[in-house]
Amino acid sequence: MDFHAAEEEEFGFSRNYFLAKEMGSSGKKSACKLSDINVVDEQELREASANLEPKHQNDVADLINSYKSLYPKWVFDLRCGFGLLMYGFGSKKSLIEDFASTALAEHSVVVINGYLQSINIKQVIIALAEILWEQLKLKRKVSSQSLPKVQQPFSSRSMDDLLAFLDGPEMDEKDSFICVVVNNIDGPGLRDTETQQYLARLASCSYIRVVASIDHVNAPLCKLGIEVDSILEFQLLISVFFLAGCALVWDKKMVHAQFNWYWYHVPTFAPYKVEGLFLPLILAHGSSKQSAKTALIVLQSLTPNAQSVFRILAEYQLSHPDDEGMAIDDLYSISRERFLVSSQVTLNAHLTEFKDHELVKTKRHSDGQDCLYIPLTKEGLEKLLSEMS
Amino acid sequence: MAPSLNDDSPPSTIDEAFTENNLQPFFVLQKGSSRKSDGKSSGTGRTRRIDLSSASPKNSANIEDEKEDENMNLRMEAFEFVWSKIESTIKDVLRVINTNVFSKIQTWVHQSFDTIRSLGTPEFPEATQSFPIITDANSKRLFTGLVLTKNMEFVDDLLTFEELGKHLKYQGCHVANLSSLDFTPKNGVGGCLRSLLRQFLMSSLDPADISILASWYREENCNNPVVVIIDDIERCCGSVLSDFILMLSEWVIKIPVILIMGVATTLDAPRNILPSNALRCLCPFEFTLGTPAERMDAVVEAVLVKPCSGFIIGHKVAVFMRNYFVSQDGTLTSFIRALKIACTQHFYTEPLSVILLEFASEEDNLVLEIERHGLSPEVIWKHVFELPSCQRVKLNKPTSESLAHAFSELKRSQNQWRAVVLCLYVTGKGEKVRLLDLFCEAIDPESYNQGEFDTNMKAEKDPVLSSSQIKGHVICKAVRLVSLSSIRDLSTAQLGNLLKIWENLTVGIPEVIFAGSFSVLVLAFLLAPTFINGRELKIPGYSNRKINGKVKELLSLLNVEDGKSSKKDLTVTPRRHTSRIQLNIEKDSKSLSDKAANLIECMVRDYMHPTECIPFHEIFCFKDVDKLRLALIGDPRRRIQVDLLEFQKLLCCRCCTSSSNALLPSMHDTSIMYKLAQEHGDLINLHDWYQSFKSIVLCPNSKRKPRQSPLPKKRKGIKEGESQSEASIQYPLLYHSSIFIFRKDLRILDHSCYRARFCRAVTELQITGLLRMPSKRRPDFAQRVAFGL
After folding, report:
1. pLDDT recorded at residue B6
2. Which of A232, B576, B625, B650 has the most CB atoms around its CB within 10 Å?
């Protein structure tokens, strides 16, 4: 019976797809241009967007409030060792954070904002280890047991060590866990495979419980019920899904043995205010361009050295407004003089980071040499520099 | 960066979004309070508890709350107890399955170690040098055990390799477990070494150097083999694995490493992954683990069929779990996870589930002290009365005692059911009957209630059984047919063996009633209302002899017959049913195996009572398959689309509910946009989409059917000024709407507002992955991603 239903569904899916394809390519494609609508300045549009009065405000509030009755159940599930995965339309950020601060008042809670562009997962794990250390110290003091001295600070330990510490033997009280709230676990800052692997390992630690939200319809590959017969096929599918803008690829180990998800459908219809902040607005001028504000947010998530390298470039651009950009060699020599980079490799690592987030672009200089520039206006750049300091 | 907070002006929403914390990659929301004295109560997460500590006098509601909290904590305790029992049972079962392979591996490890040692041990000066010793090609051979898992789902074997590691450690080996994650091109061979050092030396040294490992081994007195287990080589990076093998092979005299590698596909796997120089270093041996289906059956037997924890699952849940295993996920791990979710759900929703704590541990003489479970007797009895299975049998006045007796009866009935299921299983084993399938059929209450057995009997007698006849309960019938035919085809010796197994399985199946252990009340309760759905509910063992006795009888008959090689008649059919199934006809012509077949038929009919047909089973049995499905699988792809298409159902707003599918301006913007997107092909012209959207939100009585295609050409000509005047005309109509989207001042109703709303909706669709933004090649078109739910 189920089998037939699944088959039917699959058939429906492909039929719809081909129908849509047909409609799209039947020659009736509209030729109207986006530019026919008067596109406006991004800042103006963002302001207008921020001032929109939300629809159904009370209904949305009622809906979100109705989930409060589920809080005890969620705590129960966390204590049973599950991770909670919230999905459904609407921002779930405030819902989850409210849950964490009210129902988990006696637990430490760390929030990761996955919607941001760049997140250093190691920093998060170091912070978690420090919190756990404090917690254990406090407990041992009460129970007059001695805690082994920390051999080296957490910040200089390896990921494996940190995770091993968080996965330590459980204490007498089983429910003394630290809750990690992950807003948009499928967001840009957490999407890469390595970070997901670390998150999965983190989730399987004995002292950690994860409450996460997911927004993308195509979230995890193995949840789509796709049977994969070979590793090659699996890899192929992964690449296809990445190309299709699919958010995550979790293997079965991650889903069943590490994250151990308990799915909850909690649509909120709350606006994706902060989550949408870093996405370009479709009707804005130069929507693909980096705004000073988003550039700042990206920069703040980078290391101080990387920020300083960026500053050198920005200052150069401001002082040489007529130049096409700064030569990489020049940037390297100045950065090296200031002890910001030790080698070309380190500089390249920073540059890759900048380029990935469109903070910096490369241009071929008239003399044939590659040079770097920041795609921001003079005012924008000045504003950025002042806010950085 | 931080928003300038001005108390006079209300903070704009953009500033709210820009609060410091929202823009931090991560932040500490709160630190756990040190007070943990009330420990367990923290778990229930009842925020109301804060109110209880206030000075207000405790009223009855508060007391009820406290009781509920207490009950919830007890349920949590019961869950932990039950689940730890299930978990340890599963571990034991899997360990037993692997015992043989593990001991073979262990013997091989020690033999290999002896061989390595026979090549010579390094002298002191050599041993202390920080480079390897190579004498000849033999001294570079690395003993490698290839463990065939026969399972693509490596997640099921993680535990196996972990257990193997423990087993070998227990036997004195130094063991390190590596996973495919240690063999990534990013970390290279250094990553594997670091992992080895961490596991052997309990420290992370940088730079990782194998000579450190060599000196560690020298200090360990060189008496034990070093085993490195890699759980799944097919997921490892070939070049890193090859480097690792080459490195270990050079050091094998100083560090006698024995490799154990998990292989999911075929034994050719190493050849496909490794270059020839690495392959030359390997000296392979093969081992094979049990198949996933064997493991599944063993787990089902130990956890779901045999008495393990007292917690059971209902028929629908079992069928769902089986289907999920067979056609979707295919891993035992997910099956166990589903069971855990079911268990969690059950303990959370069923207040009386706390009883399982005692039910699982106590023997037949269960003494219930309801008050101990943090619930008042009134609440309990009310709950008991409301159980559907209890309402079916009209219980006069239940007491703790009667409840306890009913539980004993439930237990007894389960034991009988179990014995029959296992008898069927061993009988059908030769025909590859899976216990999981059999289990699903054996707990089906409907087939039992419909008196399915009788129809089966007819079907069995009918040699030409069409497929349509066996549809529905195909497995159960097939099992019976198989078991019957296989019994009839058995030789006397085989039959003897089978009967012996039956005998063992039916030992201790209690005979009911007349033992004097039941009070009159229980008798009245259990015996009087024995009509369910117009069908007589048989009380197991009431008039039948012990199953075990019958099996013994048959066995002795077999021995006699075997000895005398002559046919002898003995009717073993229970007296009560003799007339109905007419087993006594043609006594003389019946063979002994027919009798055995008849016996199992009787056993199925009389003893295989699905738990769901027994009163009070809800206390132990989880049946809510929908909740399990939602929690286990989730379905973001479908559900998020349904959220948008049917948002009014979730928001319960009256303004957007209409009988037709018309799009109303009061609807959620993203919902309108998504519904409009359904009219497009895979590409959506942004201009047209914007115009359609604007026309909907501008014109409240344009009851457009979503299936009507947009008319971009007509709308294209609409000037923005016209739109505004149109809006002004419609204004009185909108004014009274509680969901009015704009500020009441119509001056704000300008174009940037529409644009902003349009943009926001597009962004939201982009976040949900339902839309892809325009590419450079097609700047005027967005792309739909999802087609169909």
Report:
1. 39
2. B650
Of B201, B281, B295, the closest CA to residue B248 belongs to: B281
What one-letter code names the amino acid at B540? P
User: Domain A292-388 has what CATH class?
Assistant: mainly alpha
Tens of pLDDT, residue by residue over B343-395, are 999 999 988 888 887 766 655 455 555 556 556 667 777 777 778 777 666 65
pTM of the model: 0.76
Looking at residue B646, its pLDDT comes to 86
CB contact under 8 A, A106 and B633: no
Contact B27, A100 (CB under 8 A): no
What distance lies between CA B512 and its chain's CA centroid? Answer: 36
Tell if the CB–CB gap between A216 and B35 is shorter than 8 Å: no
Tell me whether residues A175 and B681 touch, CB distance under 8 A: no
> Residue B140: which domain range?
119-290
Residues of A in contact with B23 (CB under 8 A): 113, 116, 274, 297, 300
CB contact under 8 A, B18 and A274: yes
Residue B255 in contact with residue B220, Cβ under 8 Å? Answer: no
Q: Find the closest chain A residue to B763 by CA distance.
A: A276
| Amino acid found at B297 | D
Chain A residues within an 8 Å CB radius of B446: none
User: How many distinct structural domains can be found in chain B?
Assistant: 2
Mutate to test the interface with B, among A10, A13, A229, A256 (most CBs of B within 10 A): A256
Token representation of residue B499: 């009967």
Any alpha helices (H) in B324-472, and if so which ranges?
332-349, 356-361, 377-386, 388-392, 400-428, 435-442, 445-449, 452-461
What residues of chain A score a pLDDT lower than 70?
Answer: 1-30, 35, 38-40, 141-151, 170-175, 219-249, 284-291
Looking at the domain assignment, is residue B712 inside a domain?
A: yes
Residue of chain A nearest B265, judged by CA positions: A230
pLDDT of amino acid B136: 65
List of chain B residues whose C-beta atoms are within 8 Å of the C-beta of residue A349: none
CB contact at 8 A, B155 and B333: yes
User: Which one of A244, A257, A281 has the shortest CB-CB distance to B759?
Assistant: A281
CATH T-level fold of A57-265: Rossmann fold (3.40.50)
Nearest to A294 by CA among A372, A188, A194: A188
Give residue limits of the domains in chain A: 57-265, 292-388
Given a cut of 50, the residues of chain B with pLDDT beneath it are 1-15, 17, 35-58, 364, 452-472, 474-475, 482, 511-544, 565-590, 702-703, 705-749
So what's the pLDDT on residue A180?
Answer: 94
Q: Does residue B682 contact residue A21 with C-beta atoms inside 8 Å?
A: yes
Last residue of a domain, one of B248, B274, B290: B290
pLDDT of residue A210: 94
Q: Searching chain A, which residue's CA lies closest to the CA of residue B184?
A: A194
What pLDDT, on the 0 to 100 scale, is given for residue B13?
43
Considering only the beta carbons, identify the residue of B348, B764, B780 that sits closest to A276: B764
Which pLDDT score, from 0 to 100, does residue A254 have? 84
Residue A224, amino acid: L
Please judge whether A32 and B688 are an interchain contact, meaning their C-beta atoms are less than 8 angstroms apart: yes
- Which parts of B463-580 are beta strand (E)? 531-532, 535-536
Specify the pLDDT at position A2. 47
DSSP, collapsed to helix, strand or coil, labels residue B290 as coil
Burial of B521 (0-12, 13-18, 19+ CB in 10 A): middle
Contact A29 B685 (CB under 8 A): yes
Q: Output B49-58 pairs: Cβ under 8 A, ≥24 positions apart.
A: none
Query: Which of B635, B668, B788 comes nearest A56 by C-beta?
Result: B668
**In the block, which residue shows the tokens 């066996």?**
B470
